[in-house]
Amino acid sequence: MKRKKCSKCKRFFSVDKFYIRKSGKLKGRLFSRCKECDSITNGHTPLKKIKRFCKVCKKRIKKVHNNQRYCSKCKRKPKIISLRRQMEFRQHFWGKNLWKTIEPDSVKIQRGYKVCTFKYVRIAQHRLIIMRKFKRRLFQWEEVHHLNGKKLDNRLENLQLVTDKYHPVITKLMTENKKLRQKITYFKSLLQKRS
Predict the structure, then answer these.
(1) Residue 131: inside a domain, yes or no?
(2) Residue 48, CA atoms < 13 Å, CB-side half-sphere
């Protein structure tokens, strides 16, 4: 019987103690490490000994790759189920007008605005306040303007409903107005120092 030396432990073993390559250029040749050394260095038992079962259908997975938990048929099922749930919730949320009554699960600050989350639906808080005031959903071309320029100040007195064409004009005028006020206060302070 043929014998081969293991590159790791430097001992001689019979050929059946080595794995045979199943793919690549060296297909059919033996690995340089024996089965014992290979399982120790790679930290796994040989693929033949691993038995894994699919979490969804409970069938045995034939070819195991890394930490595989689903068989090839059930691989995409969990994502599809979650997407369906999201779509159903959104349709229920907007169709039954739940935004009028339900309080948000959480309020977070994103891109300078307060954003309310209802399970799978996210709405900017200032838009939600205006929607509840007018008791209807806002159109795409409708935007909410903060009168004092502070994005986090979502009091009803500070919010104004405007069109998407009119909103940038207002914000530009507000910034110009603010700069002019700063210049006026600067020149007033200079006049007071001179007199």
Answers:
(1) no
(2) 3
